[in-house]
Fold Ribosomal protein S6.
Amino acid sequence: MVFYECVLTAKNTAPFTSLTKLMKTISSTVVENGGIVRTVQNHGIRNLPHRFKAKYPDKEGNRYYKKGRFISVWYDASPRVLAKVENEIRLDDQILRHTHLKARNKLWYINIASEKKNPYIQKVIAMEKEQE
């Protein structure tokens, strides 16, 4: 399984109930397919770097947004599950942008078998060379 970070930018006018429902569907998709949802964080409403264009105008006719709600979801899943999650996000009209990052932590480096890429193995090899 791969550790992913999903950053979502939603409309600032999006109802909280619809965003909660989206987070529940994303979480259930990950868990039903053998993944683990580590955390979901709401970073609140912030100014966007430039105005974002929505797929469709909302009920008031707004299509461009200068503010957005940022949400992060961290989860472990297979790449097949990642495609399913992205499909669910694309179908939601409240989401302006989304991106998936392959998050890395210290355990990721420990699990690498290649000596050239693993900094911990390199330290051990260097210590062994010094002792000789």
About this structure: The chain has one domain: 2-130. The two ends are 39 Å apart (CA to CA). The longest helix spans residues 16-32. The chain has a mean pLDDT of 88.
